[in-house]
Amino acid sequence: MKATSRETYKIIRGVLKLKKFKQYQISKEENVTFSLVNRVVNWLVSQKYVAKRTGHYELLSASAILGLFPLYRKMKPYETFYVALPAKQVLEIVKGNGALCLTSALSYYDDYYRDPAIHAYIKDEKVLKELKDLQKGYTHIEVYREDLNSDDFTTIKGQRVTSKIRTVIDLFCANKAYAAERLIRKVWI
């Protein structure tokens, strides 16, 4: 089962979000056909990631499901910049034109892990050109292409960031699952 295909991803995201669910509920909330939901949920049950209970299904192992994503997806930046601006000014540039991801998004959910780099999904070419034209410096910026689902973003304190679930998935795909430990505990334990 390819966890990163568009429709399968929506189903898995729904399972991770709801924890206890009915197939029909995921089909309606994620706007995916019931037959595909049934196929994916049955596969998750066969792998023992999800259990069938009386009248509903229940998530058993979020970590095992999260571990599927790096098999098919690697988080590699398509642009990297070193600019001579403070991180706060760079965040202002990104604010209306992209969404923070990885450890930059994690800092909005958990204040324990600190990473001086700025990670963001940016598709506005004008912003990329602006960053490219800035004087070289020590503020590290990594830009990624959004490849799963553009519905995975939320706004916190005026800044668009990846949702909690998407942040954890991205961290797993970037080989930084260790940074997500506290957020995983908050969401699934």
Description:
The protein is α+β, with helices and mostly antiparallel strands. The protein has 2 domains: 65 residues, Orthogonal Bundle (Arc Repressor Mutant, subunit A); 115 residues, Nuclear Transport Factor 2, Chain: A (Roll), CATH 3.10.450. 44% of the residues lie in helices and 20% in strands. The protein has 10 helices and 9 strands. The strands form 3 sheets. A 4-stranded mixed sheet has the order 4-7-6-5. Strand 6, helix 8 and strand 7 form a beta-alpha-beta unit. Helix 1 crosses helix 2, helix 1 crosses helix 3 and helix 2 crosses helix 3. The chain starts with 5 loop residues before the first helix and ends with a helix.
Distance between termini? 25 Å
How much beta, percentage-wise?
15-25%
From the 3D coordinates, which CATH architecture of the largest domain would you assign? Roll
Alpha-carbon Rg, integer: 18 Å
The count of domains is: 2
- Helical element count? 10
CATH fold type of the largest domain: Nuclear Transport Factor 2, Chain: A
Supply the CATH class of the largest domain: Alpha Beta
Reported for the largest beta sheet, the result is: 4 strands, mixed
Helix content: 40-55%
Which regions are unreliable across 5 or more consecutive residues at pLDDT < 50? none
Strand order of the largest sheet: 4-7-6-5
